[in-house]
Amino acid sequence: MDYSITPKEFEQFRALIYQECGISLNESKKTLLVSRLSKRLRTLELDSFQEYYDMVSGQTESDEFTLLLDLVSTNKTDFFREPKHFDFLREEIMPTLQSSRRIRVWSSASSSGEEPYTIAMTLYDSVPDPDRWDFKILASDISTRVLARAASGVYEDERVRELPPDLVSRHFLKGKGERAGMIKVKPHLTQMVRYRRINLMDETFPIKAPLDLIFCRNVMIYFDRPTQAQLVNKFYRYLKPGGYLFIGHSESLQRLDQPFKAIAPTIYQKEA
Ligand SMILES: C[S@@+](CC[C@H](N)C(=O)[O-])C[C@H]1O[C@@H](n2cnc3c(N)ncnc32)[C@H](O)[C@@H]1O
Fold it and tell me: Closest ligand 1 atom, CA of 20?
């Protein structure tokens, strides 16, 4: 069955998705929405987009809503994606934090875990005595599906093919037998990371301590400017004085009304 979407139905989905997760779909995303959602309608044996809308609206905590968000957003990520951020963390930030031995990080759109584990590897490898440090990384995302993947710590081994072999053997276990072709993040890293579903659109975040670092990479690009500005101002409140915010390389805080100081491309600092 071929589905078509009426202007009213498109508007309903657009408003729902914007309201719930800040992703702003313009007219040009209509074809994409129709093709991705049509498969779902077929699986559920629904007759129209209206039926699907009625099913998900008002059910934003449901698995079906998570699935809808997965279909409209992208979860693309990689280990050491945008590696300059991790060079900066290792070379510029870590030397200034040596006396504290306690670091709190939030990977706020962590997708399937490659970003928080990359942060964990970088922190771990930046100090001579990592076991004597108190490293904690909160990995959050709106999608419980990707968070479950992150929590498993299991990936196809081709995901680390480009990484230095000594780094891979230090931080990953290779699967054998039935698990050949898979790798698993070692416990010294998994125990640094906690997972939680957090919607960046929420008024406040369930986070206790002020943080040293926040990563919010490659998600703000889907938000409109007022939503980006609100989010960045919220992040400011959760950081320690002197704390850092990392955003994606194709994102920018320029032209947003926000208090951060730019200190390197796509790296920002809260006033000390
Ligand atoms: C492209 S991935 C980015 C992953 C990682 N930060 C990186 O740069 O490689 C974007 C992630 O943002 C998540 N996302 C989208 N809207 C969100 C929201 N309102 N709150 C929290 N996460 C959201 C998606 O589920 C997706 O996993």
Answer: 19
CB of 19 within 6 A of ligand 1: the answer is no
- Ligand 1 probe mutation, 73, 86, 117, 232, most atoms within 8 A of CB: 73
Q: How many CB atoms lie within 10 A of CB 54?
A: 13
The owner of tokens 């889907």 is 222
Per DSSP (E only), the strands in the chain are 102-107, 134-141, 154-156, 172-174, 182-185, 193-197, 211-216, 239-247, 261-264, 267-269
Measured at the CA of 163, the angle between CA 162 and CA 169, to 5 degrees, comes to 130
Q: Cα(first)–Cα(last) distance of the chain, in Å?
A: 59
State the distance from the centre of ligand 1 to the C-alpha of 141, rounded, in angstroms: 6
What's the chain's average pLDDT? Answer: 95
Looking at the annotation, which residues are catalytic?
A: 36, 141
- The pLDDT tens digits for 195-244 are 999 999 999 999 987 999 999 999 999 999 999 999 999 999 999 999 99
> By the 8 A CB rule, do 5 and 34 touch?
yes
Considering the entire predicted model, what is its pTM?
0.94
Q: How far apart are CA 34 and CA 123, in angstroms?
A: 43
Tokens of 94: 């870590």
Evaluate: CB of 75 within 6 angstroms of ligand 1.
yes
Q: What are phi and psi of 146, to 5 degrees?
A: -70, -30
Tokens standing for 140?
Answer: 């959050």
Where do the domains of the chain lie, and which CATH numbers do they carry? 7-72 (1.10.155.10), 84-155+186-269 (3.40.50.150)
Report the relative pairing of strands 211-216 and 102-107 from DSSP bridges: parallel
Phi and psi based region of residue 82 (left: phi greater than 0; alpha: psi -120 to 50; beta: remaining): left
